Amino acid sequence: MPKTVSKLKILYGEGDQKLLASQAATIQNAGHTVQTALGRKSVEETIRREPFDLVIVGHTLNKNDRHHLPYIVKKARPEARVLVLHSSGSHPGVDAELDTPHSIEAILQKISSLFVKAATVGA
């Protein structure tokens, strides 16, 4: 059984409102605090206003947004981890990635493994 991760403060950005709402609700039901952002500008504005443990860059954002947002997040909040869904290849600023389509359970597992790994490295 995988180790559990304590409650995280997550910023989740997508380009599709319905998907964003359903996925965010499931992540929140898993015990995390989730703030949503619809579109790139909303992600940028939110990350500049407040810190997050994790920023999820969703697959319904366009390829350009999925490529540039990790850099913007790391510049504004270097301590934040970034998970990109439907990545177009590894690049600096991305701590983890998942190609889509993946179930919400796979996303939750990736979040957990990212923070368990970070806790292990920090110990």
Describe the overall structure.
The chain has 123 residues and is α/β, with parallel strands linked by helices. The protein has one domain: Response regulator (Rossmann fold). The protein is built from 4 helices and 5 strands. A 5-stranded parallel sheet has the order 2-1-3-4-5, with helices on both faces. The longest helix is centred in the C-terminal third of the chain and has 19 residues, at 104-122. It is globular, with a radius of gyration of 13 Å. The model has no long low-confidence stretch (mean pLDDT 88).
Q: Short summary of the structure?
A:
With 123 residues, the chain is an alpha/beta fold. The chain has a single domain, classed as Response regulator (Rossmann fold, 3-Layer(aba) Sandwich), CATH 3.40.50. Helix content is 46%, strand content 20%.
Throw out a few tags for this protein.
single chain, 123 residues, alpha/beta, 5-stranded parallel sheet, globular
Structural class: alpha/beta
Beta fraction of the residues? Answer: 15-25%
CATH superfamily: Response regulator
Return Rg in Å: 13 Å
Number of helical stretches of at least 4 residues: 4
Element pattern in H and E: EHEHEHEEH
CATH class term: Alpha Beta
**Parts with pLDDT < 50 across at least 5 consecutive residues:** none
Strand order, sheet with most strands: 2-1-3-4-5
Q: What about the largest sheet?
A: 5 strands, parallel
User: Kindly state the mean pLDDT as a whole number?
Assistant: 88
Task: State the distance separating the first and last CA atoms.
Answer: 21 Å
Total number of domains? 1
The coarse silhouette is: globular
